[in-house]
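Re: your question from the hallway

Yes, I did run it. Sequences:
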Amino acid sequence: GAGVSQSPRYKVAKRGQDVALRCDPISGHVSLFWYQQALGQGPEFLTYFQNEAQLDKSGLPSDRFFAERPEGSVSTLKIQRTQQEDSAVYLCASSLASQGNQPQHFGDGTRLSIL
Amino acid sequence: GQNIDQPTEMTATEGAIVQINCTYQTSGFNGLFWYQQHAGEAPTFLSYNVLDGLEEKGRFSSFLSRSKGYSYLLLKELQMKDSASYLCAVRANQAGTALIFGKGTTLSVSS
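Structure:
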């Protein structure tokens, strides 16, 4: 497709369950970012990939959060043993290059609700 | 620390002009972005400034003063569809190239 695609669009899980969120970036985009957006807030950085290499994971809130991009294209964000505070919209973005005036293009996000 | 401030809410009427301000204090600076986000949708790119001055793109303009840590987004000839959240984001010059976002300004345009 033409844009960043994320699935599922909505996810409801019980506290303690594991979830996996998928991001399909724009074809050819080298850089891929994950952000977490709470209601009424701006997106907050979680992690960043350049091709298959995870160059920065400083924003991951705990070791329950794990992200991968094994072939340098599709990425998965996994949250283990989910907790209520994990409820948020998870946004994925991709860009052609990591510097300069290349904007990040965002997907519609996955809205995660933990019961 | 990293801090980006913008007003929480603004209101305006159709056809008017509105200016949304953003101030930032970051460990470094490698560009400032403005995004528009309608409720439940993806943020969409509006503008990019890295040098001081005004960038104009149709009804939207963005201004940057690096010495003051200040930017604004100017929206002209407002339309109802401009009702959305406007996000100011800075790319700080540090390891990784993530954007640091403000909390967003919710703009409501009325007729």
